[in-house]
Amino acid sequence: MRVLKGFWRLLVGIKDALVLLLMLLFFAILFAALSVRPNPALPGAGALVLKLDGAIVEQPADADPVAVLSGNGPATREYRLRDVIRALRVAATDAQVKAVVLDLDRFTGGGQAALAETGEAIDTVRSAGKPVLVYATGYADDGYQLAAHASEVWLNPLGAIFLSGPGGSRLYYKGLLDKLGVTAHLYRVGRFKSAGEPYIRADQSPEARAANQALADSLWARWGEDVSKARPKARLAPYISDPAGALERAGNDTGKAALDAGLVDRLGDRIAFGKRVAQLAGAPTSGKSGDYQSLPLDRYLAAHPEAAAGRVGVVTIAGEIVDGERGPGTAGGETIARLLTDELAKKRIKALVVRVDSPGGSVTGSERIRSAILEAKAQGIPIVVSMGSVAASGGYWVSTPGQAVFADPATITGSIGVFALIPTFEGTLAKLGLTADGVATTPLSGQPDVYKGTSPTIDRLIQGSITSTYARFMTIVGAARHMTPAHVDEIGQGHVWAGGTARQLGLVDRFGGLDDAIAFAATAAKLSGGDARPRWIERDPNPYKALLRDWAERRPDRDTDAVTDPLARIARAPQTTALRALADAGSILSGPVVQVRCLECGGAESRAEPATVRALLPGLLARLGH
User: How far is CA 400 from CA 18, 59, 457, 478, 497, in A?
Assistant: First the structure.
């Protein structure tokens, strides 16, 4: 009888589970049906509108279901670089597009190299004889780098332009760790490998300061060249060197100061801006003041899909490199390797472009990706690397199989170095009156011991592993770049370089963007016509996560934390810096022991709004506690 009762309970449990599953499926389908909005045909003519409420990135991340459903999803969105560029290039020759509008009120930036590529696409529109108008309440470095390429730059009369350049402070935790009794054990090779310095020092080392200053100076010089070339009438130098003086000469009117310096063409509110666009692109049938005939970016992209796939494979390595499987926006070593090997098995590609936009991360994840790329090379497929805004440390590791490496002068690369960080808490326990004791059978029993501290044996073992990994890194780079290990060591040591300097050092072959790399790869494989087009090697979009992303972007409160007031953004900077520092700490402590990562290089998180980073806070605290 007990057996029958148990069997009956099992059947009831299975039935309940199936009913629950069917209910969830039903509501998911119902939600999808209610969320889908018809995509009406584009109007006959108008202005292509790029309302960039977020960052331009190489590969947007999937929506986090928990964050979205709990209302903690990001306040801004991510725009794929190649989509933005495609829209601009199509618009240049599309007779239906009378003008292009960039709305940068809530633009949170992008990598400098990515913005340079976007600027070139804007120039293509202008070269076709079409006006490009940009509007914002305030411009910072990234926003103005794009705005400078426009034919008309508008600024809200109450707005301002703040051009600060790269730089700023970062947090150093040595004093806090000492107060808490935490000992940070840093193992590294590379006197410029400064990712772990905040845990063992109260300030920058002289080597780190010199390298960081040189990098910032190079990037800022490149920014100035780009903006000055795009907008020669802008008097950048006096405005940047003495912003307070420029403001005082304009009677403390921030808008007038920008206008007097030639940084903007017109001051006006959105209604005035809309009327100007309507003169160029046509007024809407509604007749509402300030409106104009518009072609939204998403609908325009849907109406102009990417060309049919060719035989030049393009695989993207974007974000932090980690072990195992990950979704878009994070470079999972196993995920990317499997995408490559599956594509190779289909025999559809004759050349391969590796697009890298990553500051590195796991050494094993990096090697897993490199091995998969080498498999393509072993089959006689030409390999070309296209570096985005960042291709440093592990990002450079995965770039080594390329027979040609393309980069932008503002690409951040190099950082050939290795480190590991292990915290121990013997001091913390002592402050609490706690002690630890135990037994051991070998020198490695219980090591690394987070309660009593690491032993000399484990210290030697980890440092030896770091030294060995660095030696392997130098060997890989030396073989790829035809350099001796000694020469690699000389330009390595964790030193971060701008793309212009990297080319002089032989770490990069050519300047150019992704299209240049694809064309080079097609030529190397003797492809022409349709075969010379790219074939994107990526996962098929997850419809469930795409639905979540679409819902998150439409929710009414999405823009409540996306600040347009430039002064408010400046006031929020300390909060944002602290949250990002916590994110970096959590990433290091929860990641693999041995890392080829460049924290100085920035990444997608450096462009996130405070609310976006704050949404990650509970998970980060849990990881730190663990």
Answer: 50, 21, 34, 9, 16
What is the rounded CA–CA span in Å between residue 390 and residue 319? 9
Cis omega (within 30 of 0) for bond into 456: no
Tokens linked to 550: 């679409």
Please say whether the dihedral angle defined by the alpha carbons of residues 232, 237, 238 and 244, taken in this order, is positive or negative.
Answer: positive
193 is catalytic: yes
Distances (CA, A) of 487 to 404, 434, 466: 20, 50, 19
% the chain with pLDDT above 70: 78
CB burial of 325-348 (b: ≥16 within 10 Å; e: otherwise) equals ebbbbbbbbbbbbebbeebbeeee
Catalytic, out of 393, 399, 415, 587: 393
> Mean per-residue pLDDT for 579-589?
59
Q: Is 194 a catalytic residue?
A: no
DSSP state of 527: -
- How many other β-carbons are positioned within 10 Å of the β-carbon of residue 418? 28
Catalytic residue among 51, 98, 193, 350: 193
Q: Residue 506 carries which side chain, given as an amino acid letter?
A: G
* Residue 512: C-alpha distances to residues 229, 302, 321, 488, 550 (Å): 17, 28, 24, 24, 33
Structure tokens given for 308: 């049919």
Angle between helices 333-346 and 363-378 (to 10 degrees): 10
Please give the angle made by the CA atoms of 287, 289 and 294, to the nearest 5 degrees.
70
β-strand pairing of 360-362 with 595-597:
antiparallel
What's the rounded Cα separation, in Å, for the pair 291 and 276? Answer: 10
Q: Which amino acid is at 232?
A: P
Tell me the C-alpha distance between 480 and 402, whole Å: 8
560 pLDDT band, cuts 50/70/90, is: very low
Cα–Cα distance, 321 to 581 (Å, whole number): 19
Model pTM? 0.86
* pLDDT (0 to 100) of residue 196: 86
Contacts of 615 (CB under 8 A, 6+ apart): 64, 67, 72, 73, 74
Find the mean pLDDT for residues 575-588. 58
